[in-house]
Design brief:
About 20% of the residues lie in helices and about 30% in strands. The chain has twelve helices and 26 strands. The two termini are about 30 Å apart. GO terms for molecular function: calcium-dependent phospholipid binding; metal ion binding.
Length: about 525
């Protein structure tokens, strides 16, 4: 909207060029170009860019705009109209996945704005729940009736078949009713509704030499008509058909029900307006070492970030794209506070207990460094108070409109293991996740135990409803000197990779569906004014 006009006799002919940034050397690479739209300062570009999206990675984007003056593909031959920088997460995390941002890059000039929208490509996330029964199947067993089961096969491009589902065996009956089963549409027919699905009927034998009763074919489209006369199938045994003139069939199979379930994704919720609230808690206990000493994990080095600062920045920069107000409560624990030296296990880093919010990750970093100067590192190391602090907020909004992520950065020496486990088990029922980043050289066995990936965490015989803790040892991501993160991207990735699944597990258990996204943006209609 409102691009600069660079043409003397007509309006600009704009094109947009998208660049992405390489992870290693950070150089910008051209990803693609839109079409050129002639003679307008308010172009609506049609060409879309399709890119891979990972919640846990930060994908930097740059949109450059040019006024195209000739057929040359060389961009330096055209007039530069400005550029816009953002991340893919910023677009996806905006209301309705629609981001509007100013175009910059030409000093002293207003270059207009750009509106970018993103949508997830549906790659057929549907599953179906189906149930079948059969009537009058052939009797195959000498002493008793048959023990029938069904085998479903999808056809491949080359005409071969791949098995995709087997039902259970129903014993000693010629009129079985099988249990309903759920299968993804991709597995059933690769998302192609007209592809042949073959169903074989067998009589189960203990020795594994199951007897073939017969078969029939159908397709997703036929099955999707549900229970009707179209979905009663004759089971045919080709050998018998060839031998016996009077052969009609070997029984029938009937579809009893067919329900389509759409699997929802993390992005569906974000798009529907679910907010992710990010809280930081920092370990201010004496085991970290005196902040004025270079050996301390809290060393106040004027020239570079300490371990806490590096971890905070890497994780925070990704999460902040999903937090609409970019205001983060930042807490500390395990320090003695001025003026009276009382020990606190949840104090506001900005010194304001009524309003512990900091603006952006930079605001959190600033408050962290300010606190280091005023508090005295002490102990013990109690996690439960900060976990309960966030849990109180999470407990007040269980409708799926908000989800809470607590980042605890610690040297891993914990004093209140039993209380912390109790807090985590209780929090596992709430819309929250906990990320623990362990800094320094300690053994992190206690943290691994809290992570619960190997053994689900429990307290007083109660098990956590779902896994909500992700632990990451920071030392795996830094170089030998301990001064540089080898890859901020890899650290953030490992820290955040479990969040979408933990988020979905909460929504699923609670039966919360994503809200519909706000209506897509429609450009205002330009009214042609006519003089009368």
């Amino acid at each position: 909207r409102n691009l600069l006009d660079r043409d003397t006799f007509s309006k600009s002919d704009p094109i947009c060029v998208l660049y992405t940034q390489a992870i290693g050397n950070k150089e910008w690479r051209e990803f693609g170009r839109t079409e050129v739209i002639d003679n307008t300062l308010n172009p609506d570009f049609v060409r879309k860019f399709i890119m891979d999206y990972f919640f846990e990675e930060r994908e930097n984007l740059r949109f450059d705009f040019y006024d195209v003056d000739s057929k040359s593909p060389n961009l330096s031959k055209h007039d530069f109209l400005g550029q816009m920088f953002c991340t893919l997460g910023e677009i996806v995390g905006s209301q309705g996945s629609r981001l509007e941002k100013s175009i910059v890059g030409i000093p002293g000039k207003k270059c207009g704005t750009v509106i970018v929208t993103a949508e997830e490509l549906g790659c057929c996330r549907d599953s179906v729940l189906m149930q079948f029964c059969a009537n009058k199947l052939d009797k195959k067993d000498f002493f008793g009736k048959s023990d029938p089961f069904l085998v479903f096969l999808r056809s491949n491009e080359d005409g071969s078949f791949t098995i995709c589902h087997k039902t259970e065996v129903v014993k000693n009956t010629l009129n079985p009713v099988w249990q309903a089963f759920k299968i993804s549409v991709r597995a059933l027919c690769n998302g192609d509704y007209d592809r042949t699905i073959k169903v074989e009927v067998y009589d189960w034998d203990r020795d594994g030499s199951h007897d073939f009763i017969g078969e029939f074919t159908t397709s997703y489209r036929e099955l999707s008509r549900g229970q009707s006369q179209f979905n009663v199938y004759e089971v045919i045994n080709p050998k018998k058909k060839g031998k016996k003139k009077k052969y009609i069939n070997s029984g029938t199979v009937t579809l009893l029900s067919f329900l389509i379930e759409t699997e929802v994704s993390f992005l569906d919720y974000i798009k529907g307006g679910t907010q992710i609230n990010f809280t930081v808690a920092i370990d201010f206990t004496a085991s970290n070492g005196n902040p004025s000493q270079p050996t301390s994990l809290h060393y106040m080095n004027p020239y570079q970030l300490n371990a806490y600062g590096m971890a905070l920045k890497a994780v925070g920069e990704i999460i902040q794209d999903y937090d609409s107000d970019k205001m983060f409560p930042a807490l500390g624990f395990g320090a003695r506070l001025p003026p009276d030296g009382r020990v606190s296990h949840e104090f506001a880093l900005n010194g304001n207990p009524q309003n512990p919010y900091c603006h952006g990750i930079d605001g959190v970093m600033e408050a962290y460094y300010r606190s280091l100067k005023s508090v005295q590192l002490y102990g013990p190391t109690n996690f439960a108070p900060v976990i309960n602090h966030v849990a109180r907020y999470a407990a007040s909004v269980k409708d799926g409109s908000q989800y809470f992520v607590l980042l605890i950065i610690t040297d891993g020496v914990i004093s209140d293991m039993a209380q912390t486990k109790e807090s985590i088990v209780n929090a596992s029922k709430l819309p929250m996740s906990i990320i623990i980043v362990g800094v320094g050289p300690a053994e992190f066995d206690a943290m691994e135990e809290l992570d619960g990936d190997v053994v689900r965490i429990s307290s007083r015989g109660k098990f956590a409803e779902r896994d909500i803790v992700q632990f990451v040892p920071f030392r795996d991501y830094i170089d030998r000197s301990g001064n540089h993160v080898l890859s901020m991207a890899r650290l953030a990735k490992d820290v955040l990779a479990e969040i979408p699944e933990q988020f979905l597990s909460y929504m699923r258990v609670r039966g919360i569906k994503p809200l519909p996204a706000p209506p897509p943006y429609t450009p205002p209609i330009h009214v042609l004014q006519t003089q009368i």
